[in-house]
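hey m, so remember when u said the tokens were messed up on ur end? i reran from scratch. heres the input so u can diff it against urs
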Amino acid sequence: MACSGMRHIIAMDSNGKEDRLLAPKLGTDQPWSQTKVFEDPQILQVLVGERNAHLKIIEKQLDLRLHLRGTQITISGERPQVELADRLLDELAGLVRKGYPLYPNDVLYGIRILSENIHRRLHEIFLDKVFVTSSKRVITPKSIKQKEYIEAIRTHDIVFGIGPAGTGKTYLAMAMAVAALTADQVRRIILVRPAVEAGEKLGFLPGDLAEKVNPYLRPLYDALHDMMDFEKASRLLARGTIEVAPLAFMRGRTLNEAFVILDEAQNTTSEQMKMFLTRLGLGSKAVITGDVTQIDLPENKPSGLVEAMELLGGIRGLRFVFFSNADVVRHRLVQDIIEAYESAEVRSVRSEE
């Protein structure tokens, strides 16, 4: 690539291959440019994506220009972004060489991870297999914080996952629970949610108690059926190997050899949180998830999750993992929507002051 006013620099990529850098001379505002060569055309084909979709994502997210010619990719733009894209392409190519099926979202997650820490190795995160679903989809962490969360669940008996919607708190906990059950590490899974009325009176809903609380438990069923086929899930539910229940049903029980997940924990009262945490028996593990910005309790009822954050932080064997908007792994617009609402709330508070 010819660029006036530039000198060539030779560097080596992570695989020992030669890279040609085009660096601006001092006193010029020429863009930084780097050309990478990928000798394996099959690796390159997966790396760039269908119709160069992956390269277009990198261009848009990092404000760069990427040009593919033969087995070469030339990256042009501001030097920090060029270096980040260079590192990203190396890391993604390494994943593809290991058989990883690269998708557009993986490129986005890779950009996020390396933007936070350019020295992270993506294979340590993306190849950390948590569970393989019935549809053969491999569940792995997609961010540094998700990796931290998975490791915390592996090494601690009680883990709190706290942060906004879409960060994978409940989904990954469910995957870890099903994996533990499959590996005979626990005998049963118990999925729990507080049945906060959220504007609807349970007494006015049709059906018996189980039918009344079912709408509040539906998200847990959805996650469960995403992990395993409907027939298997139904058998395990019928046998009691997997139980989905409102939090009130936990009172007076001791939960041995169980993987217990308390979802939407921000809507527990102080008494409910204490009751839940003291149900844990021998050989059991508990994961508590919630978002302290989405409390639906009456104003005179303090959140049990907020209180637990204040009281339990110093207990050994217990771990808190805090997620942020940067960890959202749902549709790419979800993160922008969350940030827009949070900005509006901040403006509202300032105007009231």
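this time it looks ok to me. The radius of gyration is 24 Å. if urs says something different then somethings off w ur setup not the seq
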